[in-house]
Amino acid sequence: MNKRKFSKELDKLVTNRFLTPYYINELFRAKKSLFNDEKVEVLIQNNFSRVLQSMPKGSAEVSVNALYEHPEMREFMEKEDTIKLILDSVDHFDFKSIISDSEIKKFTTDFINNNFDYVSSNYDLKKMVAIFEYVDLSEENKDKMHEYYLKNKEGFLKEILTTTLSIRGNLTEKESDALIKIVSNIVDKTMVHEKAKVMDIKTLLAGSFSSVIRVGDTIIKVGTPRKTFDMPNDKRILQPHLRRDLQSDLGIGAVIEVADRVDTDFSITDEEMYQIYKDMRDRGVICGDFKYGNIGKLLKDNPPRNNEKHGLHGVVTETLKAGDYVLIDTDFVYKEGDPKVEISSDMSIQFEKRYKREKGIEIPKEEVKKETREVKTTPVKKGR
Fold first, then answer.
1. Given CB 3.0 to 4.6 Å as the disulfide criterion, which of 10, 27, 70, 262 pairs with 296?
2. What rounded mean pLDDT belongs to the chain?
3. What is the pLDDT of residue 376?
4. In three state form, how does the secondary structure of 96-113 look?
């Protein structure tokens, strides 16, 4: 196969976007018989723009990796001009995969850091948000990214939240757009309060039921409607700056909570956990979903924010101090005597039985029959 035939073959590949890893490997494997000892890597390098066009959309990363795996291609693939051509050519979906997971990730990072002015002037918003999410920027370029954010604030936050707010799948397009606008406003105001820059925004969780965003030392949680939005207030509950049920307010199936960041990576025993449960239980508060992942350690004092608009009923007067333990997930929290009490976690079932035994309270037969796990006596490392 001479250069002309190779060019015709590329024309077919560009039309069908069929330059898969298998085809790439076949080219190198059969190069002697197909190319009459002409170097296939030279043919690919001399036609690299068209080679990129022939890579399947949505999986260009695997084709780039397949090329890089061949030693004859590595020096070429690591060149700044080649990296520029790749990043300029691919769409935002493949762009994200290439800068985050590909074999040439290190070289894409170097290119972006060394040419940030070019990148920020020529790449679209989706690519810039991908850089924000996946590239380890230099301190100078973090400042430049913040300048870019300030010029494109609304679109930038919308792009971040479109991928972060997983519960949008349960909403109509109109509700989703309204939710993004509300959360964007909260993130923006939090940044001002925290004196934070855009690189201080971190996505901690994007699960099926909730998404957690950190801005400096503030946590913003956006989730599906709570089992118990209205609940008794207690000093052991992490006091929210904001807690809002959008279903009742605006007809949007979501709850937003804004609170201080807490430590979630520490060792704690079951006995220590029970003492927290008991402390709340002594004040008539029942936690139906009590478990390791729902307890945090305060990094700063937790002053009462008595506001019934937040769904917290009752006045708290005591301030827990930094280092104290608090409940950070407030679903399934009830006032003793509430007929709707639902105890779901094994730990809650076990601790409630123990509490009633210690207090001489009769345990209903249906509770006695429920299976529970054994109490651990050794410290358990927890963290999320």
1. 262
2. 87
3. 41
4. HHHHHHCCCHHHHHHHHH
Identify the three-state secondary structure at position 205: strand
Who contacts 96 (Cβ-Cβ below 8 Å, separation ≥6)?
130, 133, 134
State yes or no: pLDDT of 373 exceeds 60. Answer: no
Amino acid (1-letter code) at residue 350: Q
- What is the rounded CA–CA span in Å between residue 297 and residue 299? 6
Give me the percent of the chain exceeding a pLDDT of 70.
87
Q: How far apart are CA 295 and CA 290, in angstroms?
A: 8
Distance (Å, whole) CA 333 – CA 330: 6
- pLDDT score of 207: 56
- At residue 29, the 3 state secondary structure works out as helix
Structure-token pair, residue 299: 């990094």
E strand residue ranges, the chain: 201-206, 210-215, 218-223, 231-232, 242-245, 255-260, 262-263, 266-268, 285-287, 295-298, 312-313, 325-327, 333-335, 380-382
Contact 379, 269 (CB under 8 A): yes
Phi and psi of 155, rounded to 5°?
Answer: -65, -35
Please state, in angstroms and as integers, the Cα–Cα distance from residue 32 to each residue in 1, 11, 24, 82, following that order.
10, 22, 14, 26
Q: How far is 373 from 367, CA to CA, in rounded Å?
A: 14
Of 4-8, 110-114, 185-189, 228-232, the one with minimum mean pLDDT is: 4-8
CA–CA distance, 279 with 288 (Å, rounded to integer):
15
| 307 closest CA partner among 377, 369, 259, 376 | 259
Three-class secondary structure of residue 312 per DSSP = strand
